[in-house]
Design brief:
CATH topology: Rossmann fold
Distance between the termini: 28 Å
Order of helices and strands: EHEHEHEHEHH
Number of strands: 5
Oligomer: single chain
Number of helices: 6
Helix content: 40-55%
Largest sheet: 5 strands, parallel
CATH class: Alpha Beta
Amino acid sequence: MLVEDDAVIGLTIEQALLDAGVADVTICPTTDQALAALRDKQPEVIVLDVHLADRDDGWAVAELVQTLGPDSPRIIFSTGMPQDIPKDIAEMGCVLEKPYDAQVLVDLLREPQRRGIISRLRGALSHN
């Protein structure tokens, strides 16, 4: 699932994921659409823009997803302002700072999910 309100970014990421072999990508441009989609089907991964046009706290979706337990979807935050994500929320997943190449996301998804990757990504981003 891709929660992204910028149509160009959404379509670019969707195409990169489809090209990489992802079978199904659901794009949700609003928090309400993301919550409705989660009621219908639980995705394996949620790429979550945290500043959506309808709400400025997109991480509320991540908080809800975490309540689903150990089988909850993997979360990847996508934002131009990573410093705005509360630290305890950011630790729920990886943070990709916009703009980023869609291939970075594809490569990240190919890696097994590991604890502590957020720290490594933040470190890599702060050195760029």
